[in-house]
Amino acid sequence: MNIKWVLTVAAAMLFFISGFAKAEPNEELWSNSNVIFSSMPAVHPNGNVLIGDRDGDVIEFNGLTGEIVRRIPVNIPESDYRIEISQDGTRLLIMGKVFDYATLNVIKADLQKTSIKFYHPYNNKVIYVKNSYDLAIIDFEQGEISSHHFPHTITAHEVSLDGRFLAIACKDYIAEPGNQNTFLYFYNAQTMKSIRDLENTPSTGRIISYLQFSETSKYIGYGHLGGSPKATFFSCDPPYTKKEFDVKGIGFIKDECVFLSSYFKEKSIATIWNINQEKEFYRTELYSSLLPLYNKTHNTLVLDYLYMKEENQVIRQLTSLDLNKILTGVSVENPKKPLAYFTTEYLKGILIINNYERISELINIEILDIQGNIMYSTVISTNANNSRIEIPVNLPNSVYILNLQDGKQHYSKKFIVTR
Fold first, then answer.
1. Does the predicted model carry a pTM greater than 0.90?
2. Were 359 and a residue from 140, 163, 364, 407 both cysteine, which residue would form a disulfide, CB within 3.0 to 4.6 Å?
3. What is the pLDDT of residue 341?
């Protein structure tokens, strides 16, 4: 088993929960409201979170602790730009400059700045809006260029992580000012041949501002940063089923599991839905985010969270929600009966699990580091009358993930080793 097993189980547990749970403040893994942010956040494959600040730097946070790892001096005090990360994690794309992630050396400095993204799965190709009607694809190492014309103004574009699909959103103003038609085109990203026109609808006051593919390209979805809320999802395979929700912000957790949120005047609202089953299983009024991101490495949600600190003052706060905490204590077999909450403690080379109520006689235990490497794995036999489990294991100082499989029940829990 590995870290993917943890995430798969976590998602599977979500789908079994009936009704929805209410968020609690302790679901925050960390947050930061001391920095004035000027960009949208991005999540690196190693789990770290990057976001720009008003001083013209990009700040890299440890995705697990929220501690600042480093500041990247890019001298871009502009607001609301996007930080793009290549699929392999080796390169950053920030306002027309390509950086080597490890060294921060500038690989390319004079690329087009408007709506530029990596052309996945390549780390040497980018796609950007050349003008209002043309998308250009450039291999900035070889100099190869291709351009593709569209009949309407391009407002957003996105390439799926596996490089299969390209989605292009457009608008076209009609008779009355402020009104327009919204278009969503769906292409084969390798051949640039049209697969299907997904949408051509009147959309008063709404523009498709950003697009997002699910992890394995099962769905394509979009939200709105302005105008009336109407998040929309399409399946990427026939019959291209369409589903709509009255929210603005969307973020895929797994293929069918999405975080939906909106901010209405002084009130936030967010839910987690299974869009296939059309089932809500989590709701909170504590958080909202226009571009929520799933941190696969740490099984967390990264929220560019907006809230009212004082009357008529909107504050941006970077927040990481722990999905393990949201899911803690829910039984898959009987969702109405919470399991006993157990604690972990590491003392003198022994991991101690207290207050654990077993389900079966044999329990599979696995310890991973935060990169997903298996540090320890065993199967133990437990006593029904003993709620304490001791695991002798020598671990260096760090943060670890305990995976525990007991019959059909699975748990994932973090613990820290310090001396």
1. no
2. 407
3. 60
